[in-house]
Amino acid sequence: MESSCEDIFVARQPIFDTSGNIWGYELLYRSSASAVGAQINDENLATIKVISDGFSLVCESLLNSQKLLVNFPCSLLTSEAAFALPSDKCIVEILENVYPSKDVLDSLHVLLANNYTLALDDYIGQEELKPFLPFVKIVKIDILALDSLDQANEIVKSLEGNGVILLAEKVEDIFTYEKLMDMGFVLFQGYFFARPEVVPGKKVSAQEVSKINLLNELGKDDLDVVRLSEIVKSDPSISFRLLKYINMAGQNTGRCIDSVERAITVLGRRQLVQWLRAVILSDMSSSMKANELSFMAVNRGFFFQALSNLVSCYEFQPETMFLIGILTLVDSIMEISLSDILKPLALDDKIKNVMLDTDAKLTPFIELVRAYEKWDVNKIKTLVTSLSLDLDVVDAIYNKSFAKTLAIMKSVAN
């Protein structure tokens, strides 16, 4: 299928430093999931689409010091396409299939002269990629492509003296993360940060129980405007952020917003409930890692909610699926086992059973959203097919969920 602008799927993956802070993101793109693998028939079109839409979508949520890595195919390296991106924010990533021809190397000289930072993707010591090393500041090493961590250590030693920053990608667990840090890697990309890391002896506080019960209350069918007003008014910062969100989301029609009740009317019950859940979850996050997990949790909420409208075999209402999506990462956010978190909560037993996977009903949803988060295109295709869904429809759902999450999480920041 010919690639068109509508076929481009954009996502992001966080990159962490040795302190667990988010150093930046990689901006990822591919053609629609129904295309073969991750192939993009017109690579120029795909990258231009990232430049025009992906960058504008993500950049507003970045902190001042955070960077964006963007993949550049060979044809765009030799054009002036990179100049559409700000050199202080964006890093040009050279793909591993780019050949270091004279034209390409000349283009890299020009980019460096214009203060662009360059990164080399998927380097594992290939001879054909070594001509790029004098140009790049960052070298990315795919850990899953190596036979062992010893091989990673050998690559690190071979790069000593080059003055490059080492970035380990596809880091899947904390053990690997710590080993790579000892070897000299300073940046890390992968799913390791999303895996629950239970702190022994840590208990669920009364305040946290109250907040999660409030998340549940927000999903009740009989929740009225009066109770919503009480929830918003209970915290002055929530009232302030609500007004900020209304203005950001373009919901204010020009009429004066003179009360919380008026703000609720302008925004609407359903959208306000989604926003409040994001606020509550964000306020439970105490680190950049937890903030990113909160982003992922809200994104999962939107994704599960929309996906449940297409999958008839699930007994939960879409609003409940939003809550379930959020709860799938609450153990990682709070660093407490999920069973300990769920015990004191006033949740329906059906929700608790699904969360603890006693009936495995949630498994297809979890596996699918993880495949998107890991950028595992082949697995996405397999899982969507197993659910008898259309790949392009599910892609569109994930895109919309991502855009909604960006808007909401930006508004809830203090």
From TrEMBL:
PROSITE patterns: HDOD. Residues 204-393 form the HDOD domain. InterPro entries: dGMP_Pdiesterase_EAL/HD-GYP, EAL_sf, HDOD, RNase_Y/CdgJ. It comes from the Bacteria. Pfam families: HDOD (PF08668). This is HDOD domain-containing protein.
